[in-house]
Design goal:
It is built from five helices and 14 strands. The chain has 189 residues and is of the alpha+beta class.
Length: 189
């Protein structure tokens, strides 16, 4: 079900999210999110654990799973929201955000992540996934990983470029998460 939404504050966003359940706001439309199936949730958990362990050990930032980030304008007015399967925010950006937003712990993230991971579900349309990736990149996300369990591939996409990895390849964090490596065999094997 898709509804049009008027402008709302971050507090109103949180209240609506609590009342209606998970949703995103895309171009003024409230888009409800479907619950994940086992394989989808399993891959999210696997990628979250791998990223989180590496990021914590190297103190590079924070990894979040299925948490919304909110795009705002004019201080507190929500202009959009996204809920990636997994996202990463660099430590220095997160520290700056927490200093700038003293009530950060009581609201969704009001910062665009550096890396986003989307796991394709059986009910996802590839055209919709491509549009979602473009929105993330337009929002300012540096890198988007699209995990395709059916094809056993991960597409690492940046603004204007991408590479598709297959079994036998190694996913890296490049400059966003320096030193991070994960063999696709470990993801899909």
């Amino acid at each position: 079900m898709i509804e049009r939404v008027e402008t709302m504050t971050v507090a109103e966003f949180v209240q609506l999210y609590d009342a209606e359940g998970p949703f995103e706001i895309i171009n003024g439309e409230l888009v409800k999110l479907s619950p994940g199936i086992f394989r989808h949730v399993y891959l999210i958990r696997l990628l979250f654990r791998a990223l989180d362990e590496f990021v914590r050990v190297h103190q590079l930032g924070e990894v979040f799973s299925e948490m919304p980030f909110v795009l705002i304008f004019d201080s507190d007015w929500v202009k959009g929201s996204r809920t990636p399967d997994v996202m990463f925010v660099k430590a220095e950006r997160l520290a700056e955000y927490q200093t700038r937003e003293p009530d950060f712990a009581d609201k969704p993230l009001v910062i665009v992540p550096d890396l986003v991971v989307e796991v394709i579900s059986t009910n996802d349309n590839y055209t919709d996934v491509d549009a979602k990736v473009e929105r993330y990149l337009d929002d300012g996300v540096q890198v988007v990983w699209v995990v395709d369990p059916r094809r056993k591939t991960i597409k690492a996409q940046r603004q204007g470029t991408y590479r598709t990895l297959h079994i036998g390849d190694v996913l890296t964090g490049d400059e966003v998460i320096p030193g991070f490596e994960l063999a696709l065999q470990a993801v899909f094997g």
